[in-house]
Design brief:
Bound molecules: adenosine-5'-triphosphate
Order of helices and strands: HHEHHEHEHEEEHEHEEH
Structural class: alpha/beta
Number of strands: 9
Mean pLDDT: 92
Number of helices: 9
Helix content: 40-55%
Strand order of the largest sheet: 5-6-4-3-7-8-9
Length: 213
């Protein structure tokens, strides 16, 4: 997805699209041809106006009394998210988290194919993990340029995250999926999506202690 697209459409709406898709896949499996906005909003516990707005970013508008045609809506969301074509990605840092991501087969369904991994640990370099070869980090730039890889995944310890981001930037990586709890400095034309598990967990635990104090 281009940076313009992310800027133009509200990020919370984009974040909700995979949840709509999951529900739509269920409906498709049950051969349901159409679905109303209210049905979707009830199922996902969202406001119907919000659902209408979210789905409109894909270019699809529901029809009065009918709602949305399920296959058409699935197609529009998948196209919007770029899930029709798989993008190839390189992962750096084959520790516990990196290994888990390499091991997860469903990213392909979401348009992401991790094709190789990189590390500095000589014990790991040269080995194959889940069918993906682990290369020395020094080879990142050369391989990324040769293979035209545009997505980089960072799963190294936080103190090394910026150094890896710099390598990715030099290799012309355009989108970084950052799992390291570190703030990255990148040029304007590079997209960074942070997945900070500790922040997410902080929200969960604070809500829990608020509710059950
Ligand atoms: P493990 O016990 O396998 O090291 P871990 O998840 O505890 O797992 P971390 O210390 O978080 O390990 O490091 C994650 C991975 O990142 C490790 O495989 C480590 O070798 C790798 N790594 C650390 N620094 C760099 C770097 N500068 N470049 C590439 N890989 C790195």
């Amino acid at each position: 997805m281009s940076k313009e697209k992310v800027k133009k459409y509200p990020v919370p709406s984009v974040r909700r699209l995979p949840a709509y898709l999951r529900f739509l896949y269920e409906l498709k499996a049950k051969d349901r041809a159409a679905v109303s906005c209210t049905h979707i909003s009830d199922e996902l516990r969202l406001d119907p106006t919000q659902v209408r707005k979210d789905l409109a970013i894909t270019g699809i508008v529901g029809k009065p009394k009918i709602g949305y045609m399920v296959p058409e809506l699935i197609d529009a969301i998948e196209k919007f998210l770029g899930w029709h074509d798989c993008s190839e990605a390189f992962l750096v840092g084959v520790g516990n988290l990196g290994g888990a991501l390499l091991n997860y087969p469903d990213f392909k369904k979401h348009g992401l194919n991790i094709i190789a991994a990189f590390d500095i640990d000589n014990e790991k370099i040269g080995k194959t993990f889940q069918g993906k070869e682990i290369f020395p980090i020094e080879k990142f730039q050369n391989l990324a340029s040769r293979m035209h890889v545009k997505i980089g995944i960072i799963t190294v310890p936080p103190k090394h995250a910026q150094e890896i981001a710099n390598i990715m930037i030099r290799a012309d990586i355009k989108a970084i999926w950052n799992f390291a709890p570190a703030t990255l400095n990148v040029p304007e034309n590079v997209i960074v999506e942070n997945v900070h598990l500790a922040s997410s967990l902080a929200v969960l635990s604070s809500r829990l202690s608020e509710l059950y104090k």
